[in-house]
Each structure stands twice: as structure tokens, then as C-alpha cells.
Specification:
The protein is mainly alpha-helical and 194 residues long. The chain has one domain. Helix content is 68%, strand content 0%. Helix 1 runs antiparallel to helix 4, helix 2 runs antiparallel to helix 3 and helix 3 packs antiparallel against helix 4. The protein starts with 7 loop residues before the first helix and ends in a 17-residue tail after the last helix.
Length: 194
Amino acid sequence: MSGLRLEPSTVVMLDRLILLLLTVILSAILTAAMVMQYAFADIPCPLCLLQRVAMFGCCFGLLHQLRTHKSERGGGIALLFALLLLIIAVRQTLLDLFPRPGHAYVGSAVFGVHMEVWSVVIGVALLLALALRLTLFGGPRSLPQAGTPPLGRAVRLIELYVVLICALNVASVVLQCGLGECHTSGYRLLVTPG
């Protein structure tokens, strides 16, 4: 009795779908963070902003991997940024484990859990997903010659969306921080001198 054997084109398609799904999930998380920031006035702290940078790094690594088939460089970039996300999130979680006087959790909780704790979960899940992907699908392989237009269009749309929300995040950080330190007290460039 032999194991299940998939056609090489099916393996490539599954690999691409997993990469696309991970990118969509991360972009949805980043979108939710922006919605919470502006709809609920949850101004992110500097460590939260760094977690967003790490998530964007993961997105861009995954998108790079979706565009290439000759190396696993994009997967490696995503792995490094997932590790960075985990390190930053664990640091912030440990800082907030026993809040200092006058310091409490920044922002609202989602399902009773604050963003830095969610970021730990997201970082671990990303590391596991990327490691499983490499375990299941191995190294680089050729893309099928008869490309898949629906998947190609989906990749292009998610690329544009990630670039758009990244640009909005950069603009938001400039509004919040200006060219100085970031604080959660407001948007530095929107405050009128009084």
C-alpha cells in the first residue's frame, strides 16, 4: 500500500494557496488593527507599531515567495519576520504582565486578549505554518506552464492591498509620531499648537 501521491502541479497549487491564505490572514489582521486604531481610538504604542512592521515583513516575504519558484528566499524572509514578531510580542507581554504604576495595557482587548498576546499567538502560528509548509512541500520547484489566471489575479489583488495598507500605516505613524518619539497620547501632527 503506497502513500498518497499528488501531481507536481497540484503540489505547487496547494503550496501557492497556503502562501496566499497566510498573506490574506495577515492582511486582515493588519486591517483590523487599523480599524481599531481609528474607529475605537486605540492609538498603538511603539511596540505595537513594531509588531505591525514585523507582520508587514511577513506579508512581503510571503508575496515574494508567491512570485518566485527558484528559491525559498521569500519563505525565509517571512520566517525571520515571524521570529521578530514573536520576540517583540513576548517582550511587550512580559512588560505588561505586571503593569507598572500608572501604566496599563494599551488598547482594547479582542475576545478578552490584548494585541501583544494575540501577536504571540500569531507569531507562533506563523512559525508553525511556515515550517509545516516547508516540511510538506519541500524546496523550490517549477511552476506549471499553463499558469492559473484566477490564482494569479488573487495574488495581484492581495499584493496591491498589502501595499495600500502598508502605505496607510506609514502615513498613520507619521501623523502619530511626526519625526520624534511615538506616544499613545494622540497624533502629534494633528495637534494644534496652543
